[in-house]
Design a protein that fits this description.
This protein is α/β, with parallel strands linked by helices. The chain contains 13 helices and twelve strands. It folds into three domains: 2-39; 81-232, Heat Shock Protein 90; 241-378, Rossmann fold (3-Layer(aba) Sandwich).
Length: 380
């Protein structure tokens, strides 16, 4: 506004100079006017409001994209179990993957009203994204003239929320269908796929969430993936209430565990010594303890013996690269440890499943103890 006022004052001054007829001032005024026209200041000022409007609109779009990406990945809640509406997850995933889909396929949505479920929202969003991208790539691979169609359908059964994602792409042969959940298996050209998308999706839905991931495909007609998630997921609720304590005197090992287990829903505590672990046990309710064997001051086996004596219900596990077989067998036979994990371990294939098994074992033991206690009460 101030620049525009100055330009108006400038125009008024030029007019007064021209009216005065003074030759020297007229020459300067014409030079100033020519410079003004060359710089196109007036035109720029006319476009500035539109530029600001466009910038504001662009910032709003960027803000929406960032919000959707954040909601999609739930990067601030990687290990959080929460209430989740799969229809909202689908809408968010479609925003994230829109540019990859829109040139090859139209989206048809048949979303029914479904109940909230307890799950890891970021993980389920990851599965939706993987399947949507695969559907778009299956259609793109046909090199067709027209667009394909991706149909997304949700509905509820008695005890499950169901999401079906269908495409009319190239389809998958029966020989290939049996392998699609294997790690590193891919039918895509070299450099276009890692072969981990569906393997990870299977682990998330079936192993972590106790659901089902079903594929139905016909070559030349298309593919349908069906995701089924339990509405009343007692296993996930139990996992959410579980606490696991990890003990190792090597800080790099603890840091590795902190990073590697971020996506796991149970609570986690980390201790650098047996003494610190016992302090944590005094103030926190822990269901599973995982400790290194060789540590200064108090060894892992000494720690577990103390834990067994003071907290007998805690499931005890050992991880180490240095343990005598006889010592290990004695500890197992005496009931001091539940499972032994060797270093180095495979995080996805060995370590995470072992922790989940220990949590399941704890829950089974707890249920058994509850039943026994109820039975004793009935006898009285």
């Amino acid at each position: 506004m101030k620049v525009r006022n100055q330009l108006e004052m400038h125009s008024e001054l030029i007019g007064q100079i021209e009216a005065s007829g003074e030759t020297e001032l007229l020459g300067k005024a014409k030079a100033i006017e020519k410079n003004r026209q060359d710089t196109k200041i007036a035109s720029i000022l006319e476009y500035i409001p539109a530029i600001f409007d466009d910038s504001k609109e662009g910032l709003e779009k960027i803000s929406k994209i960032v919000k959707n990406l954040r909601e999609f990945s739930r990067i601030d809640e990687l290990a959080t179990l929460d209430k989740y509406n799969i229809n909202d997850g689908i809408e968010t995933a479609l925003v994230v993957v829109r540019n990859q889909i829109q040139s090859d396929a139209d989206i048809r949505k048949e979303l029914s009203e479904v109940p909230l479920i307890i799950c890891n929202p970021g993980k389920i969003n990851q599965v939706l994204l993987n399947i949507l991208v695969n559907a778009a790539q299956a259609i793109e691979a046909q090199e067709r003239d027209d667009k394909g169609t991706i149909t997304i359908k949700t509905y509820q059964t008695d005890d499950e929320v169901v999401c079906e994602i269908s495409d009319d792409g190239c389809g998958i042969s029966s020989e290939t269908v049996s392998k699609i959940y294997e790690p590193f298996f891919t039918t895509k050209p070299v450099g276009q796929g890692t072969g981990l998308g569906l393997s990870v999706s299977y682990d998330i839905i079936v192993i972590q969430h106790k659901g089902k991931l079903i594929v139905d495909s016909t070559v030349g007609k298309g593919t349908k993936f069906t995701i089924k998630l339990p509405i009343n997921n007692q296993e996930m609720k139990k996992m959410k209430k579980t606490t696991v304590l990890f003990v190792d005197d090597e800080e790099k090992i603890l840091n590795s565990l902190k990073m590697g287990l971020m996506d796991q829903p149970y609570r986690k505590f980390f201790a650098k010594s047996g003494k610190e672990a016992l302090e944590i046990l005094k103030r926190e309710e822990v269901q599973v303890i995982v400790t290194d064997m060789r540590m200064p001051e108090m060894s892992g086996l000494e720690l577990l013996r103390t834990v067994k004596e003071e907290y007998p219900n805690i499931i005890r596990m050992v991880l180490s690269a240095y343990t005598q077989v006889t010592t290990l067998l004695t500890a197992i036979n005496q009931g001091e440890i539940y499972k032994y994990i060797t270093k180095p371990w495979k995080l996805e294939e060995e370590f995470k499943p072992a922790i989940r098994q220990a949590i399941d074992y704890y829950n089974i033991q707890s249920e058994r103890d509850s039943l026994v206690a109820e039975s004793e009460q009935l006898k009285k």
